[in-house]
Amino acid sequence: MSNVAEMRVIVGDSERAERAEELRILEALLFAAEEPLDEKTLSARLPAGADVGALLADLQNEYAPRGVNLVRVAGKWMLRTAGDLAWLLTRETVAPRKLSRAAVETLAIVAYHQPVTRAEIEEIRGVTTSKGTLDVLLETGWVRLRGRRKAPGRPVTYGTNEAFLSHFGLEALADLPGLDELKGSGLIEASLPPGFTVPVPSDDPTLREDEDPLEPGDLDLGLVPPAERVEE
Amino acid sequence: MSNVAEMRVIVGDSERAERAEELRILEALLFAAEEPLDEKTLSARLPAGADVGALLADLQNEYAPRGVNLVRVAGKWMLRTAGDLAWLLTRETVAPRKLSRAAVETLAIVAYHQPVTRAEIEEIRGVTTSKGTLDVLLETGWVRLRGRRKAPGRPVTYGTNEAFLSHFGLEALADLPGLDELKGSGLIEASLPPGFTVPVPSDDPTLREDEDPLEPGDLDLGLVPPAERVEE
Amino acid sequence: MSAEDVAFESELEAPAAGEPALVVDVEGFEGPLDLLLTLARQQKVDLAKISILALADQYLAFIEAARKLRLELAADYLVMAAWLAYLKSRLLLPEQPAPDGLSAEDMANALAQRLRRLEAIRQVAEQLLNRPQLGRDVFQRGQPEPIAEIKRPQWSATLYDLLSAYASRRQNQARAIVRMPKRSVWSLAEAREAIERLIGRSFDWSPLDQYLIEYLVEPSQRPTVLASSFAATLELVREGRLEVHQHTAFAPLFVRARANESASGGVAADAGNG
């Protein structure tokens, strides 16, 4: 009796060892494979009599909680990074980019005329300002949504922030040159129609009398464009 | 009292969960990588404060009995199929190029005696080394031009690189098989310039005192090994 | 030892006893040192205990045999043979100071050292090649997953960009407004409406200019007012609502409302053509 029991244990052990070896082989095959493998191909590489379906199910279970999962794609099997770790496979790089002429102009108008609405920007520029231009400015981190103008349509008002000052090396917004200085530096010609003024800019965060605070949803408008995804 | 104990358990659980997640991330990174990764790179992708060394040791243990192993080559980490499964995987790959006896010998001399000049290789082999032999080795990407010896004729010095270590599964040059015996018998030191105490061989990319950097033209000789893969 | 006693193979293994007497195959050797090493291995002793004298004899016998067979020998084999012959003679003679300061013993030791070094490197080369090799025995991930790069733009602009863009835009806009005053043209419709209103139902002949006096004050307006009102007048005449009268060419135009709708305006209109 005891001999039989012992035999059984030994058989059990050797079966377990066999199965473990089959799992190792399966794992190595899937790891080294250059493309997803079907069960027939896997079967051909495994020891005769191996139950490929059961082995795959076991391996899939083993890998399920891990950083890499065994997945079946179009009837074929492959190891793949766990879905929740996909972020690991991305890397952010900083790409220096120059602002477009339209964006620089719009930024300047926001700086000088803040709080300013999109319609007001367009009036000053004399051309339509695309939403993309304002999005880019929001993305620079130099322009912020201030509030909403108390006016029909309740348009959003834009202003600059500290990052703007810091990027352009300004101690305060009031350091932006006024009309006389612009003329003095030759950026504006002397002969201009009477009544031409350049505002004294202020980025005081206190809302003006004609401004309402932003509403909860305003900052999640998707105003910030998704970053460009580039495959390497 | 019971509250404190409970707290401890909770802390322990959350720590365990954290560690499990760190292991998942490490696993995913190593699986996805095309090249061996160094600890610094891995660290940068892990949560702050993760003990990369301990995590790698854990993962290495976990994978040790499996079909895929975590190995350290050239001071970097990579997953590769277990060595004992070679018989199984080899048949699906194209037979890698077989090196001539002269090339194998020359490779070994470069590996064990680096930095080494062609004249020194010839001295050891007792035969003229054809240019073709060194070209073949440079082409494998395992051997590189290091610099020029500060000696009459300023001969080029050769050494191995990371690809060599990675190909032969060596953690570092010190793991070259038989190196200790070779050193013990004084067969390596024999070729050292007098007064030198730097251990031989060394693939430390820092040029030795008796080496000058390569000159601009040296790399256009067609001798150049394929550039080492630049880190993305 | 005669050459016949020695068998040669290019392989490193020592030949089995009783093999063919002599295989002189210089092609199989990687130079004289390789040949020497192969011969040395046939002494079947540790290289450290090798007899250089015996080795030199074997080498010279091999070279002699090759020469008898008229085999072409590369120069370095002959150089080695000459050197070994010299070494042999020095080893056999009582020690004398050598010109280069090396004793025969030193020279023999140096040769033995070179042989040991070559053998050692061959052994480690073999060990190295027997290691599992990447892509031959062990494999890396067959489908590495590429890292996607997310390009985060870092925007830049200078204060000068900002100010010059602002200044030129504001300046251009200011100019654009001045340069384009509202064009004041008296349209045909305006003229017609004015004439209908002014002349109304006044059935007496009156000069057209008189009705338009208030519109003709601004000199720049005169051409457009006159042109449009004349055209409007003709239109009203054609419709039979006005009558036009002119004494001679370039004389003032007289107009009046038509009392009788059925009367012909054709003649009057002709007069207007002058």
Detailed description of the structure:
- The complex is a heterotrimer, with 2 copies of chain A (232 residues) and 1 copy of chain C (274 residues).
- Chain A is 40% helix and 18% strand.
- Chain A is α+β, with helices and mostly antiparallel strands.
- In chain A, the strands form 2 sheets. In chain A, strands 4-6-5-7 form a 4-stranded antiparallel β-sheet. A two-stranded antiparallel ribbon of chain A has the order 1-2.
- The longest helix of chain A has 31 residues, at 2-32.
- The radius of gyration of chain A is 33 Å and the shape is rod-shaped.
- Mean pLDDT of chain A is 84; it is low at 222-232.
- With 274 residues, chain C is mainly alpha-helical.
- Helix content of chain C is 49%, strand content 7%.
- Chain C is built from 9 helices and 4 strands, in the order ααααβααβααββα.
- Chain C has helices at 32-41, 52-68, 75-92, 104-130, 159-179, 188-199, 208-211, 222-238, 266-272, and strands spanning 148-156, 206-207, 242-245, 254-257.
- Chain C has a 3-stranded antiparallel β-sheet.
- The longest helix of chain C has 27 residues, at 104-130.
- The radius of gyration of chain C is 62 Å and the shape is rod-shaped.
- Chain C starts with 31 loop residues before the first helix and ends with a helix.
- The chains are: A alpha+beta (232), C mainly alpha (274).
- Chains in contact: A-B, A-C, B-C.
- Chains A and B meet through helix 1 of A and helix 1 of B.
- Strand 3 (90-98) of chain A pairs parallel with strand 1 of chain C, so a sheet runs across the interface.
- Helix percentage range of chain A: 40-55%
Poorly predicted parts of chain C: 1-22, 262-274
Q: What is the CA–CA distance across the termini of chain A?
A: 67 Å
Q: What sort of overall outline of chain A do the alpha carbons produce when their principal axes are compared?
A: rod-shaped
Biggest sheet character of chain A:
4 strands, antiparallel
The overall pLDDT of chain A, averaged over residues, is 84
* Beta-strand content of chain A: 15-25%
Largest sheet of chain C: 3 strands, antiparallel
Output the number of helix runs of chain A.
8
Biggest interchain interface, per-side counts = A-C, 57 and 38 residues
**Separation of the first and last Cα atoms of chain C:** 147 Å
Shape of chain C: rod-shaped
